[in-house]
Protein 1
Amino acid sequence: MTVLTSSPSPLLSKALEMKKLFHQGITSLNHLKHLHCHLLRLNLHQDNYLLNMLLKSAFNLTHPNYPTLIFTQTRQPNIFLYNTVIRGLVCHDHFDLSLHFFHAMRKESFTPNSFTFPFVLKACARILDSKLGVLVHGLVVKVGYEYDVFVNTGLVCLYAKCGFLDSAIKVFDQMPEKNVVSWTAMISGSIGAGRLREAVAMFRRLLGAGSAFEFEILGGITLLARIRAFEMVKGSELDDLIGVGFSLGPLIKAILPSKPRSLNKDARQRSSLSIVYNGACCCAQTTGGS
């Protein structure tokens, strides 16, 4: 019995060839432009899948004006292209322009997803646009991403950076899963609001979480240096926690759990103690301690 198989169309074959070229990697801007010209010659410059690969590479290799121009010439962009452009612009600190494309995406009736919201929220936070951030929060709930860890982290960072610490705490406490970024945003936000005891309490909560967080967050121990530098809270509580003059011994004693879990048995934990040492030295320099 003979099985008849149809060969792929010439256009499909060309598209598959271009896909293979993109997957091989783009090594330079000239290489990127060569592939772009190849797309134009093959009449594949409106293929959203190939365009998405082109845009990602363009944002990595050159000024965002080039990929943005490519995007604006796309006749029917999909949600993936919008997400790529928004992400690329945010990564290049073009926050207002990224929000412009977010609004354009909404006008086209596209529903944002878990790849859209974190970057839109970051843009809102960086330009302190709390009004838009609140509207985006409402949209997050409406479309069902209120339990996404990365979206929630974006909300925590937004509210903390804009000075709405109570809103940040509310989102943070309702998060089923927390990451280092959300913990750090809460600690930094508490410090920035002058709520230093809450910052200390949050840091202690982090160390008591019984996870790998402590080994990552200790690299950012200069947060505690900021607490001492504020000179806003006096008394034995902070003195006991931080140590007079930020001397190294009291600081390490204060921030580490009273009974570290096998601190001398695990290579990663020993490495973390080195991070603590370096961070504490930085604290001493920051506050002028000995």
Note: The mean pLDDT is 76.
Protein 2
Amino acid sequence: MMSALTATPDADEPAGSRTTDTLTTDAGAAAGVSPARTTDRDRVFEAAEAIAAEGGSPTVTLVRERAQCSSASATRFLREWRERRSARAEFPAVPEPVRALADRSIAALWEAAVSTAQAEHASELQAVRAEADVARGEADGLSERVDALEQEAGRMRSERAEAVALAEQADAARSTADGERDDALAAAARLEGELAATRDALEEARSGVGQARQEAERAVAEAQARAREAADDARSAVDQVRAAAEAATAGLREALADARSAAEAARSEAGRVRGSVTAAERERSAAVAAAARLEGELSATRDLLAATREELADVRALAGEAERARGAAEAGRAAAEARLELAGSK
């Protein structure tokens, strides 16, 4: 009954209809109909009464769903309702005449209370309506705000999806980069090993080239030394042969001059003692013998010159061999340097 007194009536409705509606509302609470302006406690009580009237057992879940309140309120006020119900069950039932009299008295009291409430709270109703209009405006604004927030949430969800996609792409790119980095590190390690092997081969090649160069230089030096010795020997032999040839030529010239002088003297003597044939013949024979001797000496000198030429050819052949040895040594050194440059370029 107290919940009915707290309801605020509409000032535009007739008093009789308001009384009838109020009594209907109070009587309809057993059917689960809630007034427009009630508290959680009133709604919980009404819901529990309605469920009990339907033959059911009021539970927190059923009461919460029908009263449209929180679980805490449903639990709290349902406990209170049960306590009051238990307290009412201890008293005997109210007789019907008493109940009818009470209902009539209550109706009269309710009509008077409603009239008084209408007179006292007309201005409050107007204020409440104004507040309701403001609340509706605020609700419209909040609805627009909710729509904007929903759009913003949709945009943020789209951005989040894009961010997730970008993050997945970044993870994939990071995985690819990690794989490429591992491949690069493996390739670098392999190249370092190959470089170390190449360096070792280069050092070995340099060492071999150095040894080959030293051997080539030593061979060239030996060949040059032999060539110089052979050339010196050849020069000495040529000088000796030339000196001997010059000496022989000088002797031949002197002998030829002597022979000519003797021949001239013989001719002069032959002319002077032309009469002495025997003497002339002897001188002539002597001159012929001297000429023959000179011819023999000249032939020996020619043989000596031929032998000297042969020795000179041998010396030249030896010098050619020395020159070829030096060329071979130079070629070996060039080849070694080429191998060294090739190893360095690798």
Note: Residues 214 and 333 are 9 Å apart (CA to CA).
Protein 3
Amino acid sequence: MVPSVTTLFARRHPGHARLLWHLYVPVRQRLVMRRVATVESTDEIDIALLTTHGLYSIEVKSLYSSIEVRLDNCKDAYCVTATPVGQDGQLLTNGITIDMGVAQNTAHVRALRTELDGLVSPQRIFNVTTYANQCGFEMHAPQGFRYAYVTTTSDCPENIVEVICRIEQKVAACWTNAEVDVLAERLAISYTDSDGSKQANHVKALSTARPSVADSSKSHKKRAHKPKTKAQPKYQSRKSQFIDEDVRDYLNGDYED
């Protein structure tokens, strides 16, 4: 049985810690436009861990796959390869995919740093992606590359709690236990979803960002009668990339407590 992140921290983390689940943090640079309506976009953070050393944005990926982590060909980001495992325990090498969890969590961290500017130092918000499985995990790159960490819930040196403990051995404490509790309550009040409305708005923003098939068909017909225009600015393509990642994450339901 794969232990949950909650269980791991309860058993292993030596210090004071608070866990919050499913925070909906506004992305103020990203407003989703459709017709005349404006829908506020949010990033859904699976787990926020607060300790006396910092705030950890934890993206949890539940993939029944063997995970390998390397630097990409340009040596400027992590490349996470997921190889599915069949019912007989054999690796299905024809189904290998590149998982975008680290890039997705980078966007979450960016949103948190913007939202908490002046309250939490950017250097104290950590990017941690964890793969909740026991199908195999191999780390072929240094931890902390570009301030990101890739971990697992499996019992190995890259276990999420072990990695966080190593981080906290290198950086000094920045908050007292009481300050951790105050900040946790503030985040809970502002960003957790007590009545389901934040999740509903989150889904609405995602669906608004992806027009229906009928709308797309109409749009293509209109463009067919118009002369070519200049290419869209680069920031728009990046915006679409982030939204697509959010949609895939929500529809796949790849998170645990």
Note: The CA atoms of residues 53 and 168 lie 6 Å apart.
Protein 4
Amino acid sequence: MKHTDSWLYRRFLNSKFMILLVDLLLALLVIFVFTKIAWVFQPVLDFLGIIAPPFIFAGILFYLTVPIINRLEKFGLHRGWAIGLLFIVLIGLLAWGLLRFIPAVSNQITSIVHSAPQIFDEIGKWLDNLNDQQNILSQHDLNEIAAEVQSFFTGKQGAFVTGTISQLQNLIGIVGNVVITISTAPIILFFMLKDGDKFTPMVLHIVPTKLRRSVKQMLHEMNEKVGSY
């Protein structure tokens, strides 16, 4: 009996269930390995987290604005002038958005500044209390100081301090991402609008060959539907 005609091969090894099970195990193995070496890809993810928002934002604006540019161009307006007119409108909307956004950021900064004296007061009280308790720094005293430090940062005062610092870091990160996106997305959008006819072929060049027809159809329908609105 040939190996390929054996009952074990036909009923078990060559079954769809077995193939599916092997694929599932391989997928789980890849996920497990990835979790163990995720730190290797963290810099790449951080880099993509910085550069991706401007391109995504510019892409959304492109599909929202390219029908307007095409319509203005059909009316006889030069494409460059149409893009310039569009950017004037976008700058006006951006200025309006900043006027709405800046007060919220200002309130956050004011809240942090107002809470700073309380933070320093808590730290000062803790240092005074620690100084009153310690006379001569022996090894035992150093151990007690370490315990006091740990107790401070795990207590309510420490939670307040670390929470405030965490809020400040998050605020700086959000503001930085917004500034990068706002400053770079218009440049990307300009070149996308200027070379709008080259945008779809460029995207299709990145997409695998088997998916190009469906992606091209999707982009065309997206452009038509957004343009109709």
Note: Residues 55-227 form one domain.
